[in-house]
TrEMBL record:
One protein family per Pfam: Aldedh
GO cellular component: cytosol
Transit peptide keyword on record: no
Molecular function as annotated in GO: succinate-semialdehyde dehydrogenase (NAD+) activity
Organism (species): Faucicola atlantae
Protein keywords: Oxidoreductase
Protein's GO biological process: gamma-aminobutyric acid catabolic process
Protein name as annotated: Succinate-semialdehyde dehydrogenase (NADP(+))
Active-site feature positions: E264
PANTHER family the UniProt entry points to: SUCCINATE-SEMIALDEHYDE DEHYDROGENASE, MITOCHONDRIAL
Domain Aldehyde dehydrogenase: 28-493
Length: 500
C-alpha cells in the first residue's frame, strides 16, 4: 500500500484508499523510471500528491496483462461477473464519504456534489451488473430448411478508456462497468488533474474480487499513455470523454489499428425559455444546469435563449436565486460553487467574458474578471469566480461559440420558435439541449428539430444510468448508459450451420 499523504490522512476513515501508484495486474506499481507528476488542490494550490507517471513500456506491460486476463474473464458467466460488480458497488457505498473527500480535494467541487457524483457513478455499476445478463443474441430464419442462422454477442476484447477531470468517478464507471459486465478487460487512463479518485475506485475493485489484469488504472502523461492505448492493436476498443480537438487526435491515432471508438466530446448546449414556460421552474433548472461543478460540464447550459417579451420577468425570478449561491472551499458544506480547475480555465473564462462585454453585452450580476488574476498567500492563483450573469449576448460573440466552462451565464433573446431553433442548431456541436414550455405541440416540434443527441424539456438535469448519453455532429458518437451502452463493448458474430 502507498503511504498516505500526511495532509490527507486526517480526512479519510480508510487511508488505504489514498493510492498514488498505478494499478497494474492487481498490484500498485510505481513508474519503472521513478517519474511522478504533481496533483494539487485547486482551492488553495496545495500539493496533495505525487503520482506515478508511467513510461510507454509500463503501459505496454499493462496491455499484455489485460490481454491475458481477458480470456478468463470472458469465460466467466454473466452472473459471476454481476456478483463481483455488485460487491464493488457495495464497497463504494460503504466508502462514499472518503471517495467524495478525495474527489473534492483534487477536483475542487463542493463536497455535496462529490457525494452525489459517487452515488451517480455507482448506479452505472449496478445497472450494468444486471444488464450484462441481458446481452441476447438472435436466431434468424434461414433461407433453407437444412440451415440455421445464429447471431452471437461476445465481448469485443481488451478495451481502453481515457477520462476527464470534471467527473472523475462517473466518467470511469459508465465506461468500466459495461466493459466488465460484457466480459472485457479494460485499462483506464484518468485525467492528470484528478487521478486519485480513479485509483481509490481501483482499490475497491480489487477488494471486490475483480481479477488481476481485468481492470487496470494507468497514470502519466497524456501523450505517452495515449500513444500506447491508441497504437496497440491488442486494444480493440477505445472510449474517450473530453474535448472535440483531442477526440479528433485520438481518432486519427486509432485509425491504423481500426479500433472501435466511442467519443463523448464538446458541447454548446442551448437553454431555451419560451414565453409560456413556468419561469420559476426554468430558473431553477437553469441554475442546476449552468452552475453545477462551477459550470465545468460538457452538458451545462452554454447559450441561454429567453423569449424577448419575458426576458425582464425571467431575470427578476432568476437573479435572487443566483445571488444565493455560495462560492468557496468545496470541503465546506455551505459551498455551492467551488474553484475552477486551473489557471488556464480561469484565463479562458475571463477572455470570453471580457470579449462579450467589449462587444456590447451588459453585465447584470457580478464583476468583470481582472486581467491579472488574484493570488493566494502561497502564490497560487485564486480560482474562485463569483457567479456572473450577462445579457445582450449575440451569436457572433466568442462566448456563444465556445464552451465557457465557468460560472458565467450568458443570455440572449429571441422572438419566435423557428428563429431560436435555427440559432440553437447553428453550431458544430450537438450534445445536450434544453427547453422550457408547457405547449404539447411545441414540445414535439422543438424536440424533433433540435440537432442534439439529448434533449431535456422542463428540466436542467438529464443524465442518468438508464438513458443513452451521447451526442451528434462534432460532439461525438456512441452511447453510454442504458441498454445501448453495453453494445459499445460487444462484437456481433454471425454463425450459419448446415444440418444435413
Amino acid at each position: 500500500m502507498t503511504t498516505p499523504n500526511p495532509t490527507i490522512h486526517q480526512h479519510l476513515t480508510d487511508p488505504s484508499l489514498w493510492q498514488t501508484n498505478s494499478l497494474i495486474n492487481g498490484k500498485w506499481q510505481a513508474a519503472s523510471d521513478g517519474q511522478t507528476f504533481a496533483v494539487t488542490n485547486p482551492f488553495d494550490g496545495a500539493l496533495i500528491a505525487q503520482v506515478a507517471s508511467l513510461s510507454a513500456d509500463d503501459v505496454r506491460a499493462a496491455v499484455t496483462h489485460a490481454t491475458r486476463a481477458q480470456t478468463d474473464w470472458a469465460a466467466q458467466t454473466a452472473e459471476t461477473r454481476a456478483k463481483i460488480l455488485h460487491q464493488w458497488a457495495d464497497l463504494i457505498d460503504a466508502n462514499r464519504d472518503d471517495l467524495a473527500t478525495i474527489m473534492t480535494l483534487e477536483q475542487g467541487k463542493p463536497i455535496g456534489e462529490s457525494r452525489g457524483e459517487i452515488d451517480y457513478a455507482n448506479r452505472f455499476i449496478r445497472w450494468f451488473a444486471d444488464e450484462g445478463k441481458r446481452v441476447y443474441g438472435d436466431i434468424i430464419p434461414a433461407p433453407a430448411n437444412d440451415a440455421r442462422i445464429v447471431v452471437l454477442k461476445q465481448p469485443i476484447g481488451v478495451c481502453a478508456a481515457i477520462t476527464p477531470w470534471n467527473f472523475p468517478a462517473a466518467m470511469i464507471t459508465r465506461k468500466v462497468a459495461p466493459a466488465l459486465a460484457a466480459g472485457c478487460s479494460i485499462i483506464v487512463k484518468p485525467a492528470g488533474q484528478t487521478p486519485l479518485t480513479a485509483l481509490a475506485l481501483g482499490e475497491l475493485a480489487q477488494r471486490a474480487g475483480v481479477p488481476a489484469g481485468v481492470l487496470q488504472i494507468v497514470t502519466g502523461k497524456s501523450d505517452v499513455v495515449g500513444d500506447v492505448l491508441t497504437g496497440d492493436a491488442r486494444i480493440r476498443k477505445l472510449s474517450f470523454t473530453g474535448s472535440t480537438a483531442t477526440g479528433r487526435l485520438l481518432m486519427a491515432q486509432s485509425a491504423e489499428t481500426l479500433k472501435k471508438l466511442s467519443m463523448e466530446l464538446g458541447g454548446n448546449a442551448p437553454f431555451i425559455v419560451f414565453n409560456d414556460a413556468d419561469l420559476d421552474a426554468a430558473a431553477e433548472g437553469l441554475i442546476a444546469s449552468k452552475f453545477r461543478n462551477a459550470g465545468q460540464t460538457c452538458v451545462c447550459a452554454n447559450r441561454v435563449f429567453v423569449q424577448a417579451d419575458i426576458k425582464d420577468a425571467f431575470l427578476q425570478v432568476l437573479l435572487p436565486k443566483v445571488r444565493a449561491l455560495q462560492v468557496g472551499n468545496g470541503m465546506d458544506d455551505n459551498t455551492t460553487i467551488g474553484p475552477l480547475i486551473n489557471a488556464s480555465a480561469m484565463d479562458k473564462v475571463r477572455d470570453l467574458l471580457n470579449d462579450a462585454l467589449a462587444n456590447g453585452a451588459k453585465l447584470v450580476l457580478g464583476e468583470p474578471l481582472p486581467h491579472t488574476p488574484a493570488t493566494l498567500a502561497n502564490g497560487a492563483p485564486n480560482l474562485l469566480v463569483e457567479p456572473i450573469v450577462i445579457e445582450g449576448v449575440t451569436d457572433d460573440m466568442a462566448i456563444s461559440q465556445q464552451e465557457i466552462f465557468g460560472p458565467v451565464l450568458a443570455i440572449a433573446t429571441f422572438d419566435d420558435e423557428a428563429e431560436v431553433i435555427a440559432r440553437a442548431n447553428d453550431t458544430e456541436f450537438g450534445l445536450a439541449s434544453y427547453f422550457y414550455t408547457n405547449d404539447l405541440a411545441r414540445s414535439w416540434r422543438v424536440t424533433e428539430r433540435l440537432e442534439y443527441g439529448m434533449v431535456g424539456q422542463n428540466t436542467g438535469l438529464i443524465s442518468n444510468e438508464v438513458a443513452p448519453f451521447g451526442g451528434v455532429k462534432q460532439s461525438g458518437f456512441g452511447r453510454e448508459g442504458s441498454k445501448y451502452g453495453i453494445e459499445e463493448y460487444i462484437s456481433v458474430k454471425y454463425w450459419q450451420v448446415r444440418l444435413g
